[in-house]
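Service request form, structural biology core

Requester: graduate student, group of Dr. S.
Request type: structure prediction, single chain
Budget code: on file
Notes: please return the result as structure tokens.

Sequence provided:
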Amino acid sequence: MLALVPTTPSSLYGKSMLLTGVEVCYDSSQQGVSLGKVQLYRNVSTNATSVEAQATVALDSSPPDGNQCQMFTGDPQLLPTNGYAAVQLKVDWDAAQADQLLTVGRTTFFLEPSNTPAVAP
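Core staff response, request fulfilled:
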């Protein structure tokens, strides 16, 4: 598993934002490597070691393999004041080809303004 958690630009602190999707550019074209699952979710945490709430925005259990950029969207989730976005990639490797790589390039998280107040849950 590989998890990517972006930092939130300070210009968005306190703003009501919906997490709507993510575009991941990746290369899983090497033999023995496949992308098994992509999950975009919103977490809520009040400290550094626990997650109090998690909501899935998008889940793809059979993403396409190859060298490409792929968009994953689903159920938009409000980012509360102590919330953050994360995407998790499940990579499947053939043990006989352990030297093969999955390359992740540009990853873009998509947010849009919301009229719902961004408060702590």
